Amino acid sequence: MQIFYFHVPAEMPADASPDAAVVIDVLRATTTIAWALHHGAEAVQAFADLEDLRAAAEAWPADQRLLLGERGGQTLAGFDLGNSPVAVVPATVSGKRLFMSTTNGTRALDRVRQVPLLVTAALPNREAVAQRLLKESPETVAILGSGWEGTYSLEDSLAAGALAARLQELSQAVTLANDEATAATALWQQWRHDPEACLRTASHGQRLIRLGDHDDDFRCCAGLDQLSVVPTQQSPGVLRAI
């Protein structure tokens, strides 16, 4: 299994055709997706475009849908929830479809929506994703960071390194296929004993700190190997717990 890591969607070659893709947006989209599905959401449907989201949501029964969205770390006007993993509790999301659009993560998902096996990863479901990839045994895996508005993000590289390092621990058949993947694993080795400190050091972490009290979000996003859920695309843009 060859592991490629791309910091942001634009860095992934246009002609790339991996057998599997893993999208990461630690702060906070893929963490929120994992916890929402763990807590019983029917599915999370991701959108890069807000008008597309609203049109799809309108076609869904009002009592069976929630709109999740943020731009710049802040909840979108008229949406039910923002992008916080601690807000998607069972009483709120169980049995409902979550229509979701975020600054970065949902755009990354859109970039690789044609890949045969598409999953999302965060630190809380790192182990589950690693086990799923080993079970499926794709020849090539593209780990795709979401970044921040098209630029590198420290926290996504941390999680990419955490996943790549775990895959190498579990199988000698796993190789790191580009320098970005090698650098990400080195970053993980530096911060693996205190991932929350890395999230808070990252520029987006600093942005969230300036916006207000996000201590619960930081703790949740930094919690390693807590969930068994692997959000998996079942139809374009629609992620379910597998």
Q: How would you describe what is shown here?
A:
With 242 residues, the protein is an alpha/beta fold. It contains ten helices and eleven strands. The strands form two sheets. Strands 5-4-6-3-11-10 form a six-stranded mixed beta sheet. Strands 7-2-8-1-9 form a five-stranded parallel beta sheet, with helices on both faces. Helix 5 packs across helix 6 and helix 6 crosses helix 7. The longest helix has 17 residues. The chain is globular, with a radius of gyration of 16 Å.
Shape: globular
Widest β-sheet, arrangement of strands: 5-4-6-3-11-10
> Radius of gyration in whole Å, from Cα?
16 Å
Number of helix segments?
10
Order of helices and strands: EEHEHEEHEHEHEHEHHHHEE
Low-confidence runs? none
Secondary structural class: alpha/beta
Number of E-type strands: 11
β-sheet strand percentage: 15-25%
C-alpha end-to-end distance: 21 Å
Averaged pLDDT = 96
- State the helicity in percent bands: 25-40%
Q: How can the largest sheet be summarized?
A: 6 strands, mixed
Which keywords apply here?
242 residues; alpha/beta; 6-stranded mixed β-sheet; 5-stranded parallel β-sheet; 11 strands; 39% helix
In short:
The chain is an alpha/beta fold.
Summarize the helices and strands and which ones pair or pack:
Elements: E1 2-6, E2 20-24, H1 29-38, E3 43-46, H2 50-58, E4 65-71, E5 74-75, H3 90-93, E6 97-101, H4 105-111, E7 117-121, H5 126-136, E8 140-145, H6 154-170, E9 175-176, H7 179-191, H8 195-201, H9 203-211, H10 215-222, E10 231-235, E11 238-241
Helix pairs in contact: 5-6, 6-7, 8-10
